[in-house]
Amino acid sequence: MNNTIKCRAAVLHSMSESRPFAKSKPVRVEEIELDPPGFDEVLVKVSAAGLCHSDLSVVNGNRPRVMPMVLGHEGSGVIEKLGEGVNNFEVGDHVVFVFVPSCGNCIPCKEGRPALCDPGLAAGGAGTLLSGDKKIKLNGDFINHQVGVSCFAEYAVVSSKSIVKVDKSLPLDEAALFGCAVITGAGAVFNTANIRVGSTVAVIGLGGTGLAALMGAKAAGASKIIGIDLIQDKLDIAKQLGAHEVFKADDPKIIKKIKSYTGSGVHYSFECVGSEKAMELAYKVLRRGGTAVSSGLSHPDKKFSIQHVDLVAGEKTLKGSFLGSCVPDRDIPAYIDLYRSGSLPVDRLMSDHISLDQVNEGFDKLSDGSTVRQIIMFD
Q1: pTM (global) more than 0.85
Q2: Using CA atoms, how far apart are residues 302 and 62, in angstroms rounded to an integer?
Q3: What is the C-alpha separation between 96 and 180, in angstroms, rounded?
Q4: Neighbour-count burial for 61-97, b at 16+ CB within 10 Å, e otherwise
Q5: For 92-133, what is each residue's pLDDT tens digit?
Q6: CB atoms within 10 A of CB 7
Q7: Residue range(s) defining the domain that contains residue 225
Q8: Domain count, the chain
Q9: Which spans in 197-275 are helix H?
Q10: Which CATH number is 306's domain given?
């Protein structure tokens, strides 16, 4: 008996194609076959998926990955089938995908740092599920999963360690945002930086992750929040979401203006672009004793420089933040509660709802910086 499922999916065949993507079409919507879920795996009917800068980084070649690949790592859906050994989920559960599965057995997982799960990261790099298996076939041949999720598809087979159950009353387009934008941005504030009430904060890059960081800073009680971006529309959104001041990133006097506004620089800066220039700016706007946190992912060849003596004499800190240093089972429900209380208005991140067939046009808009979060809707 053939238990495979046929469905439509967005398949990336080659990276670094020329812009506009609407013309070069690096992503093709094609019919794939999904093998049924194996041990500790589930089949999810995808409801919504967000176009994230991390997806764009694969499309434009900044994050080299194995090809061809079904894209998508931020999304939500409803469990349709359980594989053997799945005891903590049921058919009909609403779930959010998590782009780093946590094996639970490696040292980082046991230390409470599932974002650093060694088998999870290895599987993501190899284009497989946590089990090491591939479930997606195109024209009879296995192709690759994006970080164990691949939710730019009508259905996805994933490890049970790649999903978090959420309340069914939460609209699934809103739920999708919590799988990456919210836990990455707000998590960088709450977990990685663990900012104190009254702190001053600068957020560089006001896409989905940056705006989530800005909202997180407001919810955490920051006294002065500065939004920085190249796009005026995003600066306007930042002001609406609680930024006390905004600056254009290309302002030649931006460092002087920020230090004047804050007195001596910010306590915490958050680089949410994936740009070495943005990282250098994040460092330069710090006060003495300040901390710069980066959740952006630049090309592996890119480097940034800082003044060594300033790092030491200023007792400054540089930190990376992956998956918002989150424990997804703990943090996603908590952030949803903050959303429902009005403290984390993540619905404001949604720019547009699009169809799967509009994915290349969506990546053009994302690359232009003219949108925050476009949500692919499947229902």
Answers
A1: yes
A2: 10
A3: 10
A4: ebbebeebbbbbbbbbbbbebbbeebeebeeebbbbb
A5: 999 999 999 999 999 999 999 999 999 999 999 999 999 999
A6: 17
A7: 184-323
A8: 2
A9: 208-219, 232-240, 254-262
A10: 3.40.50.720
